[in-house]
Write a structure and sequence with these properties.
188 residues, mainly alpha, elongated
Length: 188
């Protein structure tokens, strides 16, 4: 594929250049070589920018961020999740926007950056609301509630879990979980 990529570039065959870059990124991803995977993903991003075709970029940025996480380059993972979110919003790619925020929130929680995680999950509620994703909103409120419990902000936790419970009732899913959370926190 490297040789095919070189030939496609020599012929200025952009269509096949994209195919070969995707194949190379896939091959190195399967080989669990995130560093080389990122190299080809970045080349794809650059090519899509040159072509003024931003639609594939948010998905690529999320994949790049995941690979940076595998390399323990959390600063670059964070930046790529943020870029994926920022690029997906004007394109109305709400699925990518939500995915980027979920992964960014998880990254922040794993590194005990609760303020940043709280901001991200609040943004996520808005994205999920815009996408009419009731389950996604419920899950985001659950995360917000958990962060407030960790910080011992019990009134805010109860409010978040109450919002999640209202959504859970619409879905008829996890109602007992949220009711139990509210009851346990109320007793503190």
């Amino acid at each position: 594929y490297s040789q095919l990529l070189d030939r496609a570039r020599a012929r200025r065959d952009v269509v096949n250049e994209i195919v070969y870059l995707n194949q190379l990124a896939y091959i190195y991803e399967q080989a669990k070589d995130p560093s080389r995977t990122i190299t080809y993903q970045q080349q794809l991003v650059n090519l899509y920018q040159q072509l003024n075709d931003p639609k594939p970029i948010p998905g690529l940025r999320i994949k790049m961020a995941e690979n940076y996480e595998r390399l323990a380059r959390l600063d670059l993972a964070e930046r790529n999740y943020q870029l994926a979110y920022e690029l997906s919003r004007p394109l109305l790619q709400l699925g990518y926007a939500g995915d980027a925020l979920k992964k960014l929130g998880t990254l922040y929680l794993a590194n005990n950056r609760l303020d940043a995680a709280l901001r991200v999950y609040n943004f996520l509620v808005g994205v999920e609301q815009q996408a009419y994703n009731t389950y996604g909103m419920m899950d985001a409120y659950d995360k917000i509630g958990q962060i407030h419990v960790t910080r011992k902000n019990y009134p805010q936790a109860i409010a978040s879990f109450q919002r999640a419970l209202n959504l859970a009732r619409q879905l008829k899913y996890k109602e007992d979980y949220f009711a139990t959370q509210i009851q346990q926190i109320s007793q503190r």
